[in-house]
């Protein structure tokens, strides 16, 4: 596999490393909503890579190596020697169709030599858990599926995904990698700690949390955030994710971030369903624990990539917008931590998301996460 | 240098190595702000968390307190004594209200003390011993139905349970005692048990108890090869007493009779098995002569006049005896045979003792068979009506008495005294009586001469069914003038619900029907009956007439009855007149009418066609 790194900024337009000797099968690109909306950048990429699948999404910040930036679009063009790439995508009509959409995409991708799937999805109008459930019910839980939900800074207004076309809302794209040579490895970790009393979800409706211990959840969050930060909900709420305890699977780490707030009903909407009757606990983190968590994700991915590799290695980092919100300038600490684990020979790109997709080390079953760093490494085996 | 500062300097240094101090200042300042914000958030979170945890703790404490108060109030108010002691030194730590009542002392006198400091030495020793056993082996001790060891009321019977409660580490912590007063329950159970096996009126064992005793006796007799006697007893005339004097007197009489039986049958098992029936089990090995002697004494004492509530009354006793093993080796046979013997004793006039004989069994069986056949007699047209003429003393026939006969397909004619009582027992008399009435009226309506027709009514007909409506209906159907119908009743009709019977008779009389008092001179012959109802006729019982010539008393009685009737202006019919001598006597004494073989036997109406005014020759050749 060979990688060509590219970047775009308003001052200089596209620039980057020298072109690949052979045509790329896949181009991945990440940028802010301001830069990707309208499709201008996509059309320019299409001009550069007329025969490649071009897939990208909006973010809460782009990751390039150890750096984060909000002003540049970053992209990689990938040429695989012995791996076939297939792109499928769908526009989802409503959140309720998420599971069916996942299953539909998976059916289009299914094949005996399917070796891995990378998913980019709208980050606000899709029920991520259901989407993944739909995918894994068709492909099985052993096939590696990773990816992320598109972001929109901390505004949580609109997210875009482009798949061989102009980026748009409600889109879900899935890239299938085929062949025995394809290698995919992943890691996923958070670094958050629970705090405060366990609370009972006394009323909920899907992802909408209506009552926590009989109290509107917005009241609880407002208390914990303080007046100043409460005004900035839902973005500020990312500082306090919710740990959901699944009584039937105590090992399962379910962490959910606030995605929307209804100030009249005083309810909060989370990234996925909050089952009524379960217990929930607030979580918090400090800079060091988050960085350590990211390092752990890097270590998992690196150690999972086995055998001799031919050509370049790409690491796609998908980290949660909530982490960046908490860490501020210290966000780079987590990128440093991942970099230290992966080593210098791995090209690192990625983005800050509204949800991360990867199988956690504890269960190995693909899930939607919030507030984690996930690292997906792809490469091709030697020989 | 801090990693962040190094990064910030790197970010603000240009390619020439020149640091943009303004930009650096901004980054450093922003980092401070981020740190401050993070610290504020952390501080607030910690403060809120502490508050929340405190609230949670307070809530939990309150819940615990409430739960404790809830349980305390339950423990305090249950009617079961609950007591708890420290396992290590047996000092009382909890006593509820029921416990105070049990021990007869306020809990303040007990709390914090050991049994040794509270109770007498012996009681304390007992308590300590049980405590030690529970504490040593950890198993609860349950003692049921014992006397309470200490307190104001030592007659109380209690169930007690003592158990050990361990602390979190498994070490003995408390000894808990639960004491339940079951005195009432045990008394109630005994009472219920007594009620289940005894008759409420006489407090004698009941049928169920008797059956149990009989089975025990049988088993014992089979093992010990001994014999015993089963006596079936029935009070004679008890029903009449009950009817005449009312149930309260009847009940008192029943109790008195039961007392006499129980006293006299000293040592035997006496049971009241229903109505006026008793059973007695004689002791093992008793000889026939002894049974007879005891039974005879019973008949004698029960038969003695008894004064109950200012009433002098007299009942008799009939006794049937069956002997084990001669008359049966199982309960059912012994009971049936004792009953057969009793039936014979009753049939022989009551007031006597009969031992079972094989022939009795047959007789009783035969009676049952006859009763069975009687059910089909009506529908199979086996019943018929005979007519016996009644005449003035000069021989002029004035009417006929209709008499029912049963022509049994295999037995031939069954006498009325055999089957009427059977029909009265099972209620068939209502249908039979109605049928006879209809037949008699229909027949009489067809006679050219307007003669009287007399029909007997049973007391049962007065009690059951709608006799008045039924007579009315039959008169309408047959077209017989009510004045030609005469109903004959016995005293039995008036015994019982006197008022109802009297009302019915008055209404019948109002229709024009004549009412005759039958069998006068037998039974109670209460003259008050004659006073309370204007009978149209009195019929002197045949027994007086047949004895006219042999016993002077009979003549005197007949004379007296005739005198009485004449004084009351009631005509008299003499029954059973068979000889000219009897007729002459009666005519001399101014008897009004007669009935008997002298005038004519009961027979099919065809024999008396000429008397009813049908021209036989014309009928024959018409």
Please explain how this structure is put together.
The complex is a heterodimer of chains A (383) and B (622). Chain A has 383 residues and is of the alpha+beta class. Chain A has 2 domains: 2-189 and 288-381, no CATH class; 193-282, no CATH class. Helices cover 23% and strands 40% of the residues of chain A. Chain A has a 7-stranded antiparallel sheet with strand order 17-16-20-14-15-19-18, with helices on one face. In chain A, 57% of the residues are buried. Chain B has 622 residues and is of the alpha/beta class. Chain B has 4 domains: 3-73, no CATH class; 78-185, Beta-Lactamase, CATH 3.30.450; 200-356, Reverse transcriptase/Diguanylate cyclase domain (Alpha-Beta Plaits, 2-Layer Sandwich); 375-621, TIM Barrel (Alpha-Beta Barrel), CATH 3.20.20. Helix content of chain B is 51%, strand content 20%. In chain B, strands 13-14-16-17-18-19-20-21 form an 8-stranded mixed barrel. The longest helix of chain B has 57 residues, at 21-77. Chain B is elongated, with a radius of gyration of 48 Å. The mean pLDDT of chain B is 88. Chain A binds chain B through residues 195-197, 223-226, 229, 239-240, 282, 284, 286-287, 326, 328-330, 332-333, and chain B through 3-4, 7-8, 27, 30-31, 34, 37-38, 40-42, 44-45, 48-49, 52-53, 56.
Low-confidence stretches of chain B: none
The proportion of residues in beta strands of chain B is: 15-25%
The overall average pLDDT of chain A, rounded, is 92
Q: Please, how many domains of chain A?
A: 2
What general form of chain B does the structure show? elongated
- How many runs of DSSP E, i.e. beta strands of chain A? 25
The helix content of chain B is 40-55%
């Amino acid at each position: 596999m060979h990688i060509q790194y590219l970047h775009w900024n308003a001052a200089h337009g596209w620039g980057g490393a020298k072109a690949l000797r052979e045509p790329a099968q896949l181009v991945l690109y990440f940028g802010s909503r301001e830069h990707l909306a309208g499709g201008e950048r996509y059309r320019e990429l299409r001009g550069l890579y007329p025969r490649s699948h071009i897939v990208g999404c909006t973010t809460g910040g782009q990751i390039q190596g150890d750096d984060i930036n909000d002003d540049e679009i970053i992209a990689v063009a990938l040429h695989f020697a012995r791996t076939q790439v297939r792109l499928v995508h769908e526009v989802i009509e409503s959140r309720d169709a998420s599971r069916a959409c996942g299953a539909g995409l998976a059916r289009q991708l299914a094949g005996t030599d399917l070796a891995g799937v990378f998913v980019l999805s709208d980050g606000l109008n899709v029920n991520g858990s259901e989407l993944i459930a739909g995918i894994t019910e068709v492909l099985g839980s052993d096939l590696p599926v990773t990816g992320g939900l598109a972001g929109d800074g901390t505004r949580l207004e609109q997210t875009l995904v482009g798949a061989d076309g102009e980026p748009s809302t409600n889109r879900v794209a899935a890239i299938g990698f085929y062949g025995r040579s394809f290698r995919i490895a992943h890691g996923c970790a958070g670094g958050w700690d629970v705090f405060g009393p366990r609370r009972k979800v006394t009323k909920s409706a899907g992802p909408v949390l209506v009552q926590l211990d009989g109290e509107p959840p917005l009241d609880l969050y407002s208390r914990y955030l303080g007046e100043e930060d409460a005004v900035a909900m839902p973005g500020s709420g990312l500082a306090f994710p919710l740990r959901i305890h699944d009584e039937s699977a105590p090992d399962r780490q379910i962490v959910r971030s606030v995605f929307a707030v209804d100030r009249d009903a005083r309810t909060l909407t989370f990234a996925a369903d909050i089952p009524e009757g379960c217990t929930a606990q607030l979580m918090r983190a400090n800079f060091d624990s988050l960085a350590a968590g990211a390092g752990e994700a890097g270590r998992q991915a690196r150690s999972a990539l086995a055998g001799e590799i031919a050509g370049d290695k790409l690491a796609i980092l998908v980290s949660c917008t909530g982490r960046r919100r908490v860490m501020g300038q210290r966000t780079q600490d987590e990128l440093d931590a991942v970099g230290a684990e992966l080593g210098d020979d791995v090209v690192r790109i990625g983005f800050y998301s509204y949800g991360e997709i990867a199988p956690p080390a504890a269960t190995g079953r693909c899930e939607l996460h919030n507030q984690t760093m996930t690292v997906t490494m792809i490469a091709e085996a030697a020989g | 240098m801090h990693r962040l500062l190094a990064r910030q300097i790197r970010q603000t240094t240009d390619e020439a190595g020149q640091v943009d101090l303004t930009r650096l200042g901004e980054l450093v300042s922003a980092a401070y702000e981020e740190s401050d914000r993070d610290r504020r958030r952390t501080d607030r979170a910690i403060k809120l968390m502490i508050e929340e945890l405190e609230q949670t703790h307070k809530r939990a404490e309150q819940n615990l307190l409430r739960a404790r108060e809830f349980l305390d109030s339950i423990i305090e108010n249950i009617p079961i004594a609950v007591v708890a002691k420290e396992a290590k030194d047996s000092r009382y730590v909890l006593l509820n209200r029921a416990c105070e009542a049990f021990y007869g002392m306020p809990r303040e006198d007990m709390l914090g003390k050991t049994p040794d400091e509270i109770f007498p030495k012996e009681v304390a020793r007992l308590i300590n011993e049980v405590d030690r056993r529970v504490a040593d082996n950890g198993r609860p001790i349950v003692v049921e139905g014992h006397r309470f060891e200490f307190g104001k009321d030592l007659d109380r019977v209690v169930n007690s349970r003592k158990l050990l409660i361990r602390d979190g580490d498994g070490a003995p912590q408390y000894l808990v005692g639960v004491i339940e007063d079951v005195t009432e329950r045990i008394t109630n159970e005994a009472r219920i048990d007594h009620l289940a096996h005894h008759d409420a009126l006489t407090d004698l064992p009941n049928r169920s108890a008797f059956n149990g005793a009989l089975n025990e006796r049988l088993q014992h007799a089979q093992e010990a090869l001994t014999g015993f006697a089963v006596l079936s007893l029935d009070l004679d005339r008890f029903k009449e007493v009950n009817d005449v004097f009312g149930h309260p007197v009847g009940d008192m009489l029943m109790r008195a009779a039961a007392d006499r039986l129980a006293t006299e049958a000293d040592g035997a098992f006496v049971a009241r098995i229903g109505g006026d029936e008793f059973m007695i089990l004689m002791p093992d090995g008793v000889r026939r002569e002894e049974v007879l002697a005891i039974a005879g004494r019973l008949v004698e004492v029960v038969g003695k006049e008894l004064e109950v509530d200012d009433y002098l009354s007299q009942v008799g006793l009939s006794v049937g005896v069956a002997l084990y093993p001669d008359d049966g080796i199982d309960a059912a046979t012994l009971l049936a045979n004792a009953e057969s013997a009793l039936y014979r004793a009753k049939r022989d006039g009551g007031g006597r003792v009969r031992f079972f004989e094989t022939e009795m069994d047959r007789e009783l069986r035969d009676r049952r068979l006859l009763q069975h056949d009687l059910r089909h007699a009506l529908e199979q047209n086996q019943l018929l009506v005979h007519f016996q003429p009644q005449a003035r003393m000069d021989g002029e026939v004035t009417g006929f008495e209709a008499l029912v006969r049963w022509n049994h397909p295999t037995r031939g004619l069954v006498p009325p005294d055999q089957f009427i009582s059977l029909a009265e027992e099972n209620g068939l008399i209502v249908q039979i009586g109605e049928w006879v009435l209809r037949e008699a009226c229909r027949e009489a309506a067809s006679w050219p001469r307007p003669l009287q027709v007399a029909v007997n009514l049973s007391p049962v007909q007065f009690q059951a069914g709608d006799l008045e409506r039924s007579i009315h209906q039959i008169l309408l159907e047959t077209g017989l003038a009510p004045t030609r119908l005469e109903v004959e009743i016995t005293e039995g009709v008036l015994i019982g619900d006197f008022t109802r019977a009297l009302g019915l008779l008055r209404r019948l009389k109002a229709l024009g029907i004549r009412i005759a008092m039958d069998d006068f001179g037998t039974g109670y012959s209460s003259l008050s009956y004659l006073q309370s109802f204007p009978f149209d006729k009195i019929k002197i019982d045949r027994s007086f007439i047949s004895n006219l010539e042999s016993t002077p008393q009979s003549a005197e009685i007949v004379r007296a009855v005739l005198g009485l009737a004449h004084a009351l202006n009631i005509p008299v019919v003499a029954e059973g007149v068979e000889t000219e001598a009897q007729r002459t006597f009666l005519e001399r004494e101014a008897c009004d009418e007669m009935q008997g073989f002298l005038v004519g036997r009961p027979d099919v109406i065809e024999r008396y066609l000429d008397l009813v005014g049908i021209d036989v020759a014309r009928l024959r050749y018409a």
